[in-house]
Amino acid sequence: MVAQQTPTNRLKSPGKVCLKSFCYRIVHIHMDITHFLFIAALFALMLVCGVFWGLYFALSRAYQLFTATELAKIARIIVANLEVPMRNISLFCLMLMGLSIVFYPDKSNWEFWVMISSLLLIVGALVITTAIEVPINRQVVTWTNENVPANWEKLRSSWQYYNVVRTILALLSFVLFAAAVL
After folding, report:
1. Half-sphere exposure of 149 (CA within 13 A, CB side)
2. What's the CA gap between 11 and 16, in Å, rounded?
3. Which of 12, 38, 55, 127 pairs with 84 at a CA distance of 20 to 30 A?
4. Could you give the CA distance from residue 75 to residue 20 in angstroms, rounded to a whole number?
């Protein structure tokens, strides 16, 4: 026997369907926004890692060949080109990675903990940058033929060592974050 539809039944049925459809759309919109956030964070992290890798790739293998004044000239150009953009990209990257962790849907999943590890690695790379390398850069850009310090080779070696360390940390961060979100 088929239930006879009354005007009241007809009104309730479409409402339930619309509510389910609405909830389904909200969940998918949330997932789309979360997925976009993950990809945006990965892209920003790629930019940060790319600059670190680029400096390593371009300078570290030939760093010992530069005189102090050549090094100062190169440092002035690099600092002028990267100081402000890298500050902004790095902060944007940290914000997006943090938001990705906050909005990650399953906090008991391994990917969540990998994302946290990735964030800690890039924070470590940025701490090395700001606490060690930027102060060395600030010294190097002031060098001229007349005021090169006696320990300039030691400063150069220190910068080079920490550039390798931060590059490794940043690349590990990228690999972990990519593994978690892709």
Report:
1. 12
2. 9
3. 38
4. 60
CA-to-CA distance for 111 and 65, rounded, in angstroms? 43
> What Å distances lie between residue 54 and 57, 82, 112, 121, 161, CA to CA?
5, 12, 29, 18, 15
Q: For residues 54 and 84, what is the distance between their CA atoms, to the nearest angstrom?
A: 17
Does residue 66 sit in helix, strand or coil? coil
Per-residue pLDDT tens over the stretch 126-177? 999 999 999 999 999 999 999 999 999 999 999 999 999 999 999 999 999 9
Specify the pTM: 0.82
**Residue 121 contacts residue 132 (beta carbons within 8 Å):** no
Tokens of 122: 């890039």
Closest-CA residue to 68 (of 147, 179, 166, 165): 147
The pLDDT tens digits of the residues spanning 29-61 come to 656 888 899 999 999 999 999 999 999 998 877
